[in-house]
Specification:
heterodimer, A: 100 residues, mainly alpha, B: mainly alpha, 0% strand
């Protein structure tokens, strides 16, 4: 059997029958009851709330990192690590002359 | 004499000023269209009602973003189509490709169609039930595109506006959806040994 023909018939059937636009009794009342519990979205209020929530963890992280860096500032290991970091970050600059 | 009905813009402005009750008039006016759209993608009444409720709750919450550049109905129908698509993606059940749940009446319609393709009656309820079962087995994007493009006879540009997809993406999805539909119909005929 030809699928194109069957496809055409089935689509024609779907078009012919359509869908009902019947609305259940007092459906708008049901939605309004839900809406009474809602408020329109205030984007600025959402942003403000999110930023306030994020503030406390940010302050905590800043304090922890500050204390940790203060305590390890003078240690020999920290100095070695910072030297290693600097070497790694600047490694491409050292090799820049080779590229040219 | 009947008082003059407020326009959509007046109702929306009143809702945004805090007169929530005005939203009920918008719901009453547009709910038949939203119900008809939802029934294209969901069969059970409770699912249809949930979709329509979600559409209007979203519309209420996002009302301040309505710019009145196009009619409110267009904006609402975009919300409705996108909510229906989300529903399809969340309910991707019953997508196994076998057609075991086809009734005897639908089977008979298929046999009649196989014997006389041009004479088969597309107005028959069995044909509508069959197309619904085929669409249920399609991917969410495929089903949405076939419904909008083939059944509702909308243009590619209209579908792009309704779905938020780009025009080339609609074309690609339409091509894939037609191929998917053809594959399903081939499987249906093979299962029924036609």
């Amino acid at each position: 059997m030809n699928t194109a023909n069957l496809n055409k018939k089935l689509i024609a059937a779907a078009r012919h029958h359509g869908t009902s636009d019947r609305v259940p009794y007092a459906f708008e009342k049901r939605i309004m009851a839900h809406i009474k519990d809602l408020r329109p979205v205030d984007v600025w209020a959402l942003w403000g709330r999110a930023l306030w929530r994020a503030a406390a963890p940010c302050v905590a992280i800043t304090l922890i990192i500050g204390v940790w860096s203060f305590q390890s500032r003078d240690s020999e290991v920290a100095q070695l690590k910072s030297a290693d970091l600097e070497t790694t970050v600047l490694a491409p600059m050292d090799n820049l002359g080779d590229v040219w | 004499m009947d008082p003059v009905e407020p326009t959509d813009s007046e109702l929306i402005a009143a809702v945004l000023r805090g007169d929530t009750a005005c939203f009920e008039q918008l719901i009453t006016k547009y709910q038949p269209r939203v119900f008809a759209t939802a029934r294209r993608y969901a069969r059970r009444d409770d699912e249809v009602e949930d979709i329509v409720q979600e559409v209007f709750l979203k519309a209420y919450q996002k009302l301040s973003s309505f710019r009145a550049e196009a009619p409110f109905e267009h904006w609402l129908m975009r919300l409705a189509v996108r909510t229906c698509y989300d529903f399809l993606r969340d309910h991707q059940r019953n997508r196994e490709t076998s057609f075991t749940e086809i009734t005897d009446a639908e089977d008979d319609w298929l046999e009649r169609h196989a014997e006389d393709p041009d004479g088969s009656d597309e107005k028959a309820t069995e044909a509508k039930e069959l197309v619904d079962k085929v669409l249920e087995k399609m991917s969410p994007a495929g089903r949405l595109v076939i419904t909008l493009l083939e059944i509702e006879d909308r243009s590619v540009k209209e579908i792009a506006e309704l779905t938020g997809w780009s025009v080339p993406l609609v074309k690609v999805r339409a091509f894939r959806a037609r191929a998917e539909m053809k594959k399903l119909l081939t499987k249906l005929m093979k299962d029924k040994k036609l």
